[in-house]
Amino acid sequence: MPDFCKQQLRKGFMTFRCSKKASRDGYCGVHHPDAKKARREKQDAKWNATRAKWEWQEEERKAIAFVVQAAVEWERGESPEELLRQAVASLKRARIGLRSATFGVGASQP
Ligand SMILES: [Zn+2]
User: Fold this and answer.
1) How do residues 5-63 score in pLDDT, each as one tens digit?
2) Three-state SS at 10
3) pLDDT tens digits for range 72-99
4) Distance from the CA of 9 to the center of ligand 1, in angstroms?
5) 67 is in which domain, residue-wise?
6) 62 in any annotated domain
7) In sequence order, which residues have a C-beta less than 8 Å from that of residue 49 and are 6 or more positions away?
8) Residues near 50 by Cβ (< 8 Å), separated by ≥ 6?
9) 31 Cα–ligand 1 center, Å
10) What residues are neighbours of ligand 1 (ion), with CB under 5 Å?
11) Is residue 2 situated within a structural domain?
């Protein structure tokens, strides 16, 4: 007798069994717990990368505002040049972070 995947599926109020053949541990390739776990991990990694990118975009936005404010204040003689240098440094950091989050370097780190 052919062994079918033991995964129960739902469609509205109907419950039925997966119609694919079982290939491992009574599950098909799609419904095996390892395959589900791998898909979930892939999704999580993708989401984490997206979130990291958003966070760096927010950092960049704040850093730009900081640079503008520090430059205006420095021009008026209200704040030291050192503050402007710090603002520029924070903008550079944000852009490095954004670049690595966008192109994958360290993108999956929490
Ligand atoms: Zn299945």
Assistant:
1) 999 999 999 999 999 999 999 999 999 999 999 999 999 999 999 999 999 999 999 99
2) strand
3) 999 999 999 999 999 999 999 999 999 9
4) 9
5) 50-103
6) yes
7) 101, 104, 107, 108
8) none
9) 4
10) 5, 7, 18, 20, 28, 31
11) no
